Amino acid sequence: MNGLNAWYKPAKFALSIGIFSLTMGWYTGYLDSYKYISIYNWSLIIFLGFELFYITLQASRSQLSHYNFSSNLYTSLTVAMAIAAIAVTLYTGYIGILFCTYRFATLPDYYVWAIRLGIFLFVIFAFEGAVMGANGSPRIGADYGKTIPFLNWSLKYGDLRIAHFIGMHALQLLPLLAVYLIKDLKMVIFTGFLYAVLALFCLVLALNGKSWPNARSFTKVGKFH
After folding, report:
1. pTM score, two decimals?
2. What pLDDT score was predicted for residue 162?
3. To bridge 185 with a disulfide, which of 14, 74, 110, 181 should be the other Cys (CB 3.0-4.6 Å)?
4. What integer pLDDT is reported at residue 166 of this predicted model?
5. Cβ-based neighbours of 198, under 8 Å, separated by 6 or more
6. Buried b (16+ CB within 10 A) or exposed e, 63-85
7. pLDDT score, position 214
8. CA distances from 138 to 40, 48, 90, 99, 207 (A)
């Protein structure tokens, strides 16, 4: 599809969903006193399982899954995927709220804060998917040119998936940095701020139709255009 191996997309989604599910399974283990936590875990299985199944099915049929409005059925399934993603994101945000209200006597404060920041950055940049949906494409500027192998991110034009990826994977990266490298509450919060700035910069860059190789020309201009 679009000159790419049809199985790249389901492979990327399977990897991403797998990492996300394992991560949240780990974090929700700290909320064992919350009696409804199993509902959250089952919601991930149902909603994300549906999304991955549909993406894989469409790939096997050499059909688009996202941005496919070629029939009423495909439009309905595209909307269903969006609803599933929104439901998971909102519920994950609620888990983040629980992390803000619970007291974790046995966990270092810098680790707990890294999880909190990771969850909320995940939620914010997961909702960036709505920008891609409204745009009808993850790219801005043009839908051709050189790309990063497998990831298919544009090296010439704006690509909203870069900020989407960076922001969402704060969920894993910030806690890992906190535990194995930083180990300080103030530095964890500062690192989270810098990480958010990086993701936001990638988003603004993409909205202006620029890619990382063209970022220098963007900063020289000094304004959006």
Report:
1. 0.88
2. 92
3. 110
4. 95
5. 166
6. ebbbeeeeeeebeebbeebeebb
7. 63
8. 28, 20, 22, 32, 10
d(CA 172, CA 24): 9
* Residue 205: CA count within 13 A, CB half-sphere: 26
- Based on its alpha-carbon atoms, the radius of gyration of the chain, rounded to whole angstroms, reads 19
Scanning the chain, the segments in alpha helix (DSSP H) are: 8-28, 37-60, 72-101, 109-126, 129-135, 160-168, 170-177, 185-207, 215-221
DSSP 189: H
Amino acid in position 206: A
Low-confidence stretches of the chain (pLDDT beneath 70): 1-4, 143-145, 212-225
The per-residue pLDDT for range 6-15, each reduced to its tens digit, is: 788 899 999 9
DSSP 8-state assignment for residue 181 = I
